[in-house]
Automatic annotation (TrEMBL):
One of its GO terms (cellular component) is secretory granule membrane. GO terms for biological process: dopamine catabolic process; norepinephrine biosynthetic process; octopamine biosynthetic process. PANTHER family: DOPAMINE BETA HYDROXYLASE RELATED (PTHR10157), MOXD1 HOMOLOG 1 (PTHR10157:SF23). Residues 32-155 form the DOMON domain. The lineage of its organism: Eukaryota, Metazoa, Ecdysozoa, Arthropoda, Crustacea. This is DOMON domain-containing protein. InterPro entries: DBH-like, DOH_DOMON, DOMON_domain.
Length: 186
């Protein structure tokens, strides 16, 4: 079972563009190279996300729900090309394949709208949202009151021919996290 970094979730009062004002925050690795901020919206039944990585290529997150009968994990990859144009891709991963470079096909239904993306000073910041349950057969209703396996990855290269390059051993990690009630995280 993956261990959580020494840093714990906390409230962040940092004001970001597009109004994420008071978000939960988790530093996902000991070197603080990947930071996740999120705000559950119980009225809209969605979670607003901001993730930040010390990378100038693609950055991504993967959710695996332990209670799901599906072998798929939800994946989102986003970034900023050198020309300033932005991208976001909703993908899925078959977690039953034990290969480190498992293919991540594009999801037919794109459920991660890009709100904002910026690359500056060696960092990439992406803002997006995700419904608690997308009703997409290639997604899991993973944003619920349970601890999930949450993986993150990044690379200093953007997409090549629409595909992310493999991040290698250093540009990734995994933690356990309850997005709706982080105090319940195992």
């Amino acid at each position: 079972m993956p261990k959580r970094p020494n840093s714990r979730f906390s409230m962040s009062d940092t004001k970001f563009k597009n109004a994420i004002v008071s978000a939960l925050r988790e530093i996902l690795d000991p070197n603080a190279t990947f930071i996740l901020r999120w705000t559950p919206d119980f009225e809209e039944k969605k979670v607003d996300f901001e993730f930040e990585a010390q990378a100038i290529g693609w950055i991504g997150i993967i959710f695996v729900s332990p209670s799901s009968a599906s072998s798929f994990a939800d994946t989102v990859i986003a970034g900023v090309f050198d020309d300033g144009s932005t991208y976001i891709q909703d993908r899925y991963t078959d977690v039953s394949i034990p290969e480190p470079d498992t293919p991540q096909p594009l999801d037919i239904q794109q459920d991660w709208p890009l709100v904002y993306a910026e690359e500056a000073n060696g960092k990439t910041i992406v803002r997006t949202s995700r419904a608690f349950d997308t009703n997409d057969p290639q997604d899991n209703p993973i944003i619920q009151d349970e601890t999930i396996l949450f993986s993150w990855a990044y690379d200093d290269e953007d997409l090549v021919d629409g595909e992310p390059l493999y991040h290698g051993e250093d540009g990734r990690g995994t933690v356990l996290l309850n997005l709706l009630y982080p105090e319940k995280t195992l």
